[in-house]
Design goal:
By secondary structure, this protein is an alpha/beta fold. It is built from 17 helices and 13 strands.
């Protein structure tokens, strides 16, 4: 048996995040756990209680052990002892953290002398956590916690904020087949939701929050002024009230559809024509990858890692952030060109199949774990580069 294979057989990896909810980071962590479980001993812990989300249910069906630590809102000092208990039980070789959990995890991993600690930055570093979280992160990264970026732009933001280089860049991955196998559901879903076969659906999947800027998307759509066009928004958030008010003020109730959180995202994408996103900032958005896997051309603001996913003119159209007029023009460009939409959608799907598989993401992280464990020194791991993972 090769050295890497024998190492993989005994590596225990514990993924820790706030919850196994429906956000992009939570989805990515779930996909990663399922991919890693083929070769490594994988378990997961969430600070907050169980959510019953689809990704959580998939992890349980795969018999991946999960701990839910029952965190209360705000600062909860009970997390320190509870996390220490999980580490004592699992005895992980690798602890892999996500989002803003390092403030609770760092004392336990130092006390238990966990051999390797990895932290994935899921967003631009300036937007990843609050001021206290940045102080903890700065200490953690200087104590040789390995920072991994999900895109080159996230890595650049990490350098700007912390004055350090990421240990690696590992792009996100998704179960591509899950988003390309529902095309036969297109007519059924449209009929169920009240859309005609020849309606053109612009669909956005994302939280109704400032980062995603859904109000800009609705304003740009309002200027399109095409009766057969519909804007479908999947997600919930603090801006929902403002969106409802704007839609009513413009008389767009028949054309703008706030569908809330839906479990059948893949089916909705299969029934759509164009994926749209108007974010102010992004890391490496899973929603864009899912839309491309479903065979949709993309219209998006060129923020964060989006230009690393979408090739302008080939698989979609990218516009400057906060440019309402450019968004409207991009919508008109694809609305008026059904053959253009088809060609870009085919290119988007081909790109997803070639590059977005969760197996590729899992292998990237598995290589990082192996390199870090075999180095015998956390300090040496600071020299691992993205190139070493390719």
């Amino acid at each position: 048996m090769a050295a890497d294979e024998s190492l993989s057989d005994r590596v225990r990896v514990l993924q820790i995040l706030p919850s196994f909810g429906v956000g992009g980071a939570e989805q990515m962590a779930g996909h990663l756990m399922m991919g890693l479980s083929e070769t490594l001993q994988v378990s997961g812990a969430s600070l907050f209680p169980a959510t019953g989300s689809p990704i959580e249910q998939r992890l349980l069906r795969k018999e991946i052990p999960l701990w839910h630590l029952g965190k209360r809102a705000g600062f909860d000092p009970r997390m320190y002892s509870r996390l220490d208990g999980v580490l004592r039980h699992v005895r992980p070789d690798v602890v892999h953290t996500h989002l803003s959990v390092l403030r609770y995890v760092l004392p336990a991993v130092l006390r238990r002398q966990v051999p390797v600690v990895v932290h994935t930055l899921h967003n631009m570093a300036e937007h990843e956590t609050d001021a206290f979280g940045r102080l903890v992160n700065r200490l953690a990264f200087r104590r040789a916690v390995l920072a991994v970026a999900i895109s080159q732009q996230v890595a650049a933001s990490f350098r700007r904020l912390y004055g350090l280089n990421c240990s690696a860049v590992v792009p996100n991955g998704i179960p591509v087949d899950d988003y390309s196998s529902y095309r036969h559901e297109r007519d059924r879903w449209r009929q169920q939701e009240g859309f005609a076969r020849d309606d053109v659906l612009f669909t956005c999947v994302g939280r109704l929050e400032t980062q995603k800027n859904p109000l800009l998307l609705v304003k740009a759509f309002a200027e399109l002024n095409q009766p057969r066009a519909h804007l479908v928004l999947l997600g919930a958030g603090d801006l929902q009230g403002a969106l409802v008010d704007y839609v009513r003020s413009r008389g767009l109730e028949r054309q703008v559809h706030l569908l809330g959180k839906r479990n059948e995202v893949a089916v909705c994408l299969a029934a759509s024509d164009i994926f749209v996103l108007a974010s102010n900032w992004e890391g490496n958005p899973l929603a864009v990858m899912e839309g491309m896997a479903a065979g949709l051309p993309v219209i998006s603001t060129a923020v964060g890692g989006v230009p690393e996913l979408v090739e302008p003119g080939k698989s979609g159209v990218l516009v400057a952030p906060a440019d309402c007029s450019a968004l409207t023009q991009a919508m008109a460009y694809l609305f008026d060109g059904p053959e253009r939409r088809k060609a870009m959608g085919m290119n988007a799907h081909a790109r997803a199949v070639a590059s977005f598989g969760m197996e590729q993401m899992a292998e990237g992280y598995a290589r990082l774990y192996r390199l870090a464990l075999s180095s015998g020194s956390k300090a040496a791991c600071a020299h691992i580069t993205a190139g070493a993972l390719n």
